[in-house]
Amino acid sequence: MPTVTFHPAGRSATVPVGASLLDAAAAAGVILTAPCGGEGVCGECRARVTSGTVERVARGGLSPEEITQGWVLACSSRVIGDAGIEVPAEKPVGPAQIITAGVEPASGRAAGGRAATGEPRIVKRAMKVPAPVLGQSQSDLDRLAHAVRGSGGPGTLVAGLDTLRELAAALRESDGHVTVSITPPDSDGCAEVVRIEPGDATGCQVGLAIDVGTTTCAVSLVDLVRQHVLGTAADYNGQLARGADVISRINFARTPERLAELRGLVLNTINGLIGDLCAHHAVEPTQIDNAAMAGNTTMIHLLLGLNPDFIRLEPYTPTVNRTPPLRGGDVGLTMNPAGLVLFAPGVGSYVGGDITAGLLSTALARPNEDVRLFLDIGTNGEVVVGNGEWLMACAASAGPAFEGSGVRCGMRASHGAIERVRIDAATGNVVINVIGGGRPTGICGSGMIDLLAELWEAGLLDPAGKLNPAAGSDRIGPAPGGGRNLACTVVPAENSKTGAAISLDERDIQNLLRTKAAVYSACAIMLKSVGLDFDAIKEVCVAGGFGRFLDLEKSIRIGLLPDLPLERFTYLGNSALSGATAMLCHPQARECVNEIARRITYLELNVDPAYMSEYTAALFLPHTDLNRFPTVKAALAARSCRSVGPPWPT
Amino acid sequence: MPTVTFHPAGRSATVPVGASLLDAAAAAGVILTAPCGGEGVCGECRARVTSGTVERVARGGLSPEEITQGWVLACSSRVIGDAGIEVPAEKPVGPAQIITAGVEPASGRAAGGRAATGEPRIVKRAMKVPAPVLGQSQSDLDRLAHAVRGSGGPGTLVAGLDTLRELAAALRESDGHVTVSITPPDSDGCAEVVRIEPGDATGCQVGLAIDVGTTTCAVSLVDLVRQHVLGTAADYNGQLARGADVISRINFARTPERLAELRGLVLNTINGLIGDLCAHHAVEPTQIDNAAMAGNTTMIHLLLGLNPDFIRLEPYTPTVNRTPPLRGGDVGLTMNPAGLVLFAPGVGSYVGGDITAGLLSTALARPNEDVRLFLDIGTNGEVVVGNGEWLMACAASAGPAFEGSGVRCGMRASHGAIERVRIDAATGNVVINVIGGGRPTGICGSGMIDLLAELWEAGLLDPAGKLNPAAGSDRIGPAPGGGRNLACTVVPAENSKTGAAISLDERDIQNLLRTKAAVYSACAIMLKSVGLDFDAIKEVCVAGGFGRFLDLEKSIRIGLLPDLPLERFTYLGNSALSGATAMLCHPQARECVNEIARRITYLELNVDPAYMSEYTAALFLPHTDLNRFPTVKAALAARSCRSVGPPWPT
Fold first, then answer.
1. How far apart are CA A397 and CA A615, in angstroms?
2. What is the mean pLDDT of residues B184-194?
3. Closest CA to A36 of A399, A382, A478
4. 3-state secondary structure A187-198
5. What is the DSSP annotation of B527-557?
6. Which residues of A touch B159 (CB under 8 A)?
7. Contact B165 A306 (CB under 8 A)
8. Which of A108 and A74 is assigned the larger pLDDT?
9. Size of interface A-B (CB pairs under 8 A)
10. Quick check: A139 and B330 CB within 8 A?
């Protein structure tokens, strides 16, 4: 079998003839992201053949010049013999990182105004189990059940095998003093022991809140006794190597083996984060009895190994919207295998548990009459409008640009990310803020929004998203990789951490414009469908992984958010994660999220013929109809903004 | 590492220096039974070193002559270099075999007189699930739950991951016509789908009844729709290689690895039987949703991987008596992993679910005032006395002799076993019946009882169990393997199927006497403890794997059973298996067996000082006190029976 060696990493893999270069890279442990799922469309998995030859199946978007230089698309090239392959500098995927600590879960809001009792799904009870007596022929489980009843616990006790296997030793280790983790009793008064520990261990109970994002996964380790988030870690979803958006992933998962691969990739990501958090906080993962998970419908299907195909096909039917509670071991999480995993309920194929959980952090979860708009700008854009009485939701194919995927120097909001950008109008100097300080490795969502707005305001970018070489800035030049693309250098190579310049090219900008257009037009269509105007909106709740400092004014200026008074906006951050945290900590939040899911009416955007023209009109900065952005229009006039060309093509 | 080769099989294993010969034999796939669990006590694992040398750790019961000839105990010999080992002809372990077919489960009796509805634990429902509709955003599970409700099923439906993974395909394969296997709803009206099949599959539902015996495991495949036993298969418990009785097994299981080994061995045996039955009846094992299991407390602990150590140590406390229902996959059975396994409840460490299940086949399960005695003569002897109001139980360490273990030519009641023996008083000729006809391979329990009684009556055996060479029979001679032991040849080598003579030696006879003494004395002590006499017993129910034709008269003659009118005896056969079958088929049987377990008072025999003298007195044929066996005494007098010597030592 031929051997393929990838440079500069120097890693090799021996693969059968006919294997794709993408698979060879995966086998060699070299990450080549393929946002389109390996369909030969996006051109992101470019690599250059430096020795040997490969068979080209498709040329994708490669120019004749690039083809001459040896560039191929890894997904569309087959191994036919030994080869040396040079891959562009890998994407700056930041390491998993404890990005927040010491945060209180948003209990009051989630609990719908009622007092939070803080009882998690599985509770601990400490007790003394009397020693066995000769002739009474009581089993260990009988004695434990008796002690549980005596401590005011449920009347009947069952146990799974893992617990039964520990029982004899645990009862004898601490002279009968034990702590049991038990499910709440069913209406017959029967509960299950899922774990037994010697001694009194009620002072320590931790749980997991998990956000399974298409681009990024985040996990919080939560102290359930003190109702306190111990730490949060996030990382790119390992499935990124197999497609950037849900449709690419569904296409990739067309065989059981590939479905199993995607399941393994996301479990690896999440379990890696759990492992990091547990190590950092000295928690033994098997001590974790409770987890709450929020994710979009496709992500939950892939994580559970459920066939996602019918999510993609009309009439878009998932296997499950409200996933029943499952065991940690069945799900495959690094936790007590008998522990419970709760899932935020989904509403449909494209409005999932990430949205219902996200709504827990808003006033839409509470009874009130004010109409609010909820936007989740993740890999997909989901929009919800409604009040405490009714809710309507739709999904827009926004793309993961603001999460750092589909943008060459994009990255999630972690250490090394440029989170704020300002261009000095007088000098043209670029001032940046980097998360964690030091030299930057890439740009996160909030930085990209700043950059688009500042470039436009500085006259370096036209409303259609084309860079203006005539503006005379030395930051604008040909994009790396060739072609007719222009790029704007944000940080020159000598100042970046990777040694490569951090820049935004016109293809990146188009991706960002498509995302913001999808979100804005979905909001517009949604409001139109219920006969409301943006002005009727009391509050706009914005969720998404932009970073810590979303500049609302600039978000409006680029046309991502509607032009409303700034005080009407609330930035929620990762609301899916905070919703999962609330579900983990508060029984009321679990009730509330189910009630939200029942209340939501799902609007199929694809069937609305007006959507495409709304979308096309929103592909410009800020919009073809400037009257929709009166503040921006006024500012343009007042400040005689140096924007180049007409605001939209004539 | 040295290589050890076992003859005559010619199988080799390469093992580390210091490994026991027993482990080397296991590694080579050669079965050497070690009834004492490898403690160097029983002398059953004898083998002869023919080349190389091994290190002797203990000499066990070997004579100096045997040691000179190269005989060693495999359990107590360590490998120090290459060696050739000759093992005696392997025990005639019969293959798994369909020994019964077409039997109705004993439903009427088990159901306590009430009409049996025949509803198994998990039921099937067939229905049509309407196709999904665009815009309704119902998941597959939602639509299924709706259809289940529409068919009169439970109001709320949950599903495990295995079922969810099949759901999308199953709903689309037969145009929405599906059959679901669902648990009965809990009191909240919530049920779980454990399996989904396309089309109407309600006509076929099979279940497993499993008897986990210390010596023998038996499995019945039961048609739950027609309430009919399709077939039964039995085989020796694979754990026999690691000890013959429960105490040897518990001693063996002293490390987690060894416990796991025992678990694997018995699962192999049971799953082998399930596989045979399924193949024979063209049933896919994953279609089996229900199983009911009966076994003694130690067997259930070992099967489930529960630490059995505290069963052996005072105050004899098992982890569990009433094992909660478990999933097939958790137990490790070859069936639907999400299917349910029910366990017959145990009462104490030495009165287990085999006894409570066994009682289901007797009138003790029904309300009535007649006092009955229930004897289970398996590897342990358990005795229950009582009526429909009260029950008292005790355990005697009977030993597995009548199941064919601890008796050189003993075997279970399967093809090739001598099941009946008659010695012609005039000619001395031995007449035998062989199960399945043809040449015999060994003797089963009923054959051994016949043989003891006939030998004694023919004057070839004295009451203490010594063979009488002076009787002039050419069948009596030195036992194979040497020593001062005598043996009686039942079938000469040329007439046996194995090519080796089938004989009973004095050590075999002592094992049989110990077993019958343990059972009889336990009955006597038990009755004394409740102030009753044997005469007060309305019915004696005898369970055990003797075979099809237990000769009650001969069982009384050897002192195994009390001397009562023959019409008071009922032979139940494998009552644990028929009890498990009843539990599988009838909800009433499940209620009844739990009620029986609650009613039983457990008597600890070891703490009764009178037990040892009762036992010693019962070690003779039939007993030191002939007045307890008036029929036998009268027969001896009337027929001037040619028994040799005084009936007991003077």
1. 11
2. 86
3. A399
4. CCCEEEEEEEEE
5. HHHTT--GGG-SEEEEESSS-S---HHHHHH
6. 320, 324
7. yes
8. A74
9. 147
10. no
The pLDDT, as a whole number, for residue B620 is 95
Taking residues B549-553, what's their average pLDDT?
90
| Interchain contact, A134 vs B604, CB within 8 Å | yes
Q: Could you tell me what percent of chain B has a pLDDT over 90?
A: 63
Q: What is the pLDDT of residue A119?
A: 40
Tokens, residue B260:
């796991």
pLDDT, position B35: 65
**Would you say A463 and A620 are in contact if contact means Cβ atoms under 8 Å apart?**
yes
Token pair recorded at residue B122: 């998990």
pLDDT at A9 over 70: yes
Q: Look at residue B448 and give its three-state secondary structure.
A: helix
Of the given ranges (A332-336, B180-184, B250-254), which has the lowest mean pLDDT? Answer: B180-184
For chain A, say whether B427 makes contact (Cβ under 8 Å): no
Cα–Cα dist A212/B382, whole Å: 57
Alpha-carbon distance of A191 to A194, in angstroms, equals 9
Contact A330 B160 (CB under 8 A): yes
> Is residue B330 within 8 angstroms of chain A, CB to CB?
yes
Which member of A186, A188, A315 has the closest CB to residue B132? A315
CA distance A317 to chain B (A): 6
Chain B residues within 8 A of A594 when measuring between CB atoms:
none
- Helix, strand, coil percent content, chain A, rounded in steps of 5: 35, 25, 40
B568: tokens are 């008071």
Both tokens of A269, joined, read 């990501």
Answer yes or no: is pLDDT of A97 > 50.
no
Contact between residue B295 and residue B318 where contact means Cβ atoms under 8 Å apart: no
Binning pLDDT at 50, 70 and 90, where does residue A120 land?
very low
- What are the tens digits of pLDDT across the range A246-280? 999 999 999 999 999 999 999 999 999 999 999 99
A137 in contact with B, Cβ within 8 Å: yes
Name the closest residue on chain A to residue B172, using Cα atoms: A310
Q: Dihedrals φ, ψ of B627, to 5°?
A: -65, -20
Given pLDDT bands bounded at 50, 70 and 90, which one contains residue B72?
Answer: confident
Which of A134, A320, A351 faces B315 most closely, judged by CB atoms? A134
Residue A544 belongs to what H/E stretch? none
Q: Which amino acid is at B257?
A: E
User: Cα–Cα distance between A219 and A271 in angstroms, integer?
Assistant: 9
Q: Which residues contact A354 (CB under 8 A, 6 or more apart)?
A: A211, A212, A213, A294, A295, A296, A299, A344, A376, A378, A382, A576, A579
Measured CA to CA, the distance from residue B82 to residue A525 in angstroms comes to: 84
Q: Which of B543, B491, B558 is nearest to B92 (CA)?
A: B491
Residue B92 has pLDDT above 50, yes or no: no
Q: Output the pLDDT for position A99.
A: 47
Helix, coil or strand: residue A499: coil
Q: Say yes or no: ipTM exceeds 0.95.
A: no
User: What are the distances in angstroms from CA A461 to CA A451, A453, A506?
Assistant: 10, 9, 10
B178 forms beta bridges with B127, B198
**Within its chain, how far is the Cα of A512 from the centroid?**
17
Give the amino acid at B591.
E
pLDDT tens sequence across B255-287 = 999 999 999 999 999 999 999 999 999 999 999
Looking at the complex, does the CB of residue B481 fall below 8 Å from at least one CB of chain A? no
**Chain B nearest CA to A391, separation (Å):** 15
Q: Which residues between 142 and 181 in chain A have a beta carbon less than 8 angstroms from any beta carbon of chain B?
A: 142, 158-161, 164-165, 167-169, 172
Q: State the average pLDDT over residues A137-166.
A: 92
Whether this prediction's pTM lies above 0.90 is answered by no
Query: Is the pLDDT reported for residue A189 higher than 90?
Result: no
Q: Across the strands, what pairs with B541?
A: B374, B570
Return d(Cα A38, Cα A243) in angstroms, integer.
Answer: 7
